[in-house]
Structure formats: structure tokens, C-alpha cells
Design brief:
6-stranded parallel sheet; 9 helices
Length: 220
């Protein structure tokens, strides 16, 4: 897919499972929690935690049952999960695309649902801050996708721009930007946490096209 970038184009990206794999954030958090709880045997504890997750169980309930004398609470575990500084990496081709967009004088934005500290830590860990012109995090903005106000913020602040939106979650990523005439590209990935059957959605929820990898995008 070839996309022309210039000073009149704005590329907006979802974050989780679009620019990086969210399962890697989960693994990073689990490793951090395991080290916090059992530093001497954290590797084995992480493996057990991940097995619980893969089997569909509740990992935090498992931890509270495994170590009851430590007085580990759900609140403590959620805080450790959300607030840790993650070890995560951009998907193949993302960095090259961002560099080309900026070289062509295009603008880059992020729209992501989530808590401020969690999402800000992800942006820092991925090295994205240097490329981004606008960032909307739902906790900071007061509304979350698919609320149209999230996308209209960009339209109001940057009138006349050609907008491209990249996301992965059929539930809430594309329905609003499609109504606002943005070009929507869906990023498919077998590792995505939010797996959905496309047949269960009307055309209004689907992007204009799909890619399997960012290396399929050529910025000119």
C-alpha cells in the first residue's frame, strides 16, 4: 500500500496491539510482578503466571491464593501491572514509517484508551515521543474511543488535513473515524489480545483495508 505524505497529511495511530504487541506488555508486567513477589524464583513464578493466563484463568487470583501470607491484594497487583515501566518494542516496519512521515513533513498522532501513567510509560519505552505531534489518552482527555469527540479534536485543531488512522480493535477503532471521512487501515496480527471475528461486524465498523505488517506500507 502506497501513501503519499506531505505537510497536509496527518497519520494517527492506536497504540496497543497496533504499534506494538500488547502481549509483550503483559509479559513485561508479569515478570516485574514475579520479581517483586519472589525475587529468588521469579523466573519460575513468571512461567506459572503466564500458564494461568494462557489457560484462561485469573492470574492475580492465582497469586493471592499461592502466597496468602504475603497479604497481596488485587489493588497492589493491579498497581504493579499498570505502573511498571515496560520492556516492549515497536512492530517491524513502524520506526521506518514514522521516520519517513516526518521527513515528508507529515504529522503523527496517537489515540489510545487507558490510564495516563500506563500509556505514557509505553510511549517512552517505545521511543515514540520524539515523533508525536498530538497524543490523546482517554484518562487525560475525558472520553475514550469510539467517542467521536476524540477524533473531532484533530479535525478542529487541524482543519483541512488528510487523515489516516491505523488501529486493530474492530469494536472501537474505526467506526467513528470512518464517519468523519478518515482513511482507516486495520492492522492484523495473530498475537493480538483483542481477537475478533470480522464476520460479526457491519461494514461501518470495518476499516477501508487491512495490512498484516507495517512493512506493507510504503510512504512516498
Amino acid at each position: 500500500m502506497i501513501i503519499k505524505a506531505d505537510s497536509g497529511t496527518f497519520f494517527v495511530f492506536d497504540l496497543d496491539d497496533t504499534l506494538y504487541s500488547e502481549i509483550d506488555f503483559l509479559k513485561s508486567a508479569y515478570k516485574s510482578i514475579a520479581f517483586e513477589i519472589e525475587p529468588k524464583s521469579h523466573v519460575l513464578l513468571f512461567k506459572d503466571m503466564f500458564e494461568v493466563f494462557k489457560s484462561g484463568g485469573n492470574t492475580f487470583e492465582y497469586l493471592m491464593g499461592r502466597i496468602p501470607d504475603r497479604k497481596i491484594t488485587m489493588e497492589n497487583l493491579l498497581s504493579l501491572y499498570r505502573d511498571h515501566f515496560p520492556k516492549i518494542f515497536l512492530k517491524a516496519g513502524v520506526l521506518e514509517i514514522l521516520i519517513k512521515i516526518k521527513n515528508k513533513k507529515g504529522k503523527i498522532g496517537i489515540i489510545t484508551n487507558g490510564r495516563s501513567i500506563t500509556q505514557r510509560n509505553k510511549l517512552k519505552a517505545l521511543g515514540l515521543e520524539q515523533f508525536i505531534d498530538e497524543t490523546i489518552i482517554s484518562e487525560e482527555f475525558g472520553h475514550e474511543k469510539p467517542d467521536e469527540s476524540v477524533y473531532k479534536y484533530f479535525l478542529d485543531k487541524y482543519p483541512g488535513e488528510q487523515f489516516y488512522f491505523f488501529g486493530d480493535n474492530i469494536n472501537n477503532d474505526f467506526v467513528s473515524p470512518k464517519k468523519l471521512a478518515w482513511c482507516c487501515i486495520g492492522v492484523l496480527d495473530k498475537k493480538n489480545i483483542h481477537k475478533k471475528l470480522l464476520s460479526g461486524f457491519s461494514i461501518g465498523y470495518l476499516p477501508h483495508c487491512f495490512i498484516n505488517k507495517f512493512t506493507e506500507i510504503k510512504i512516498i
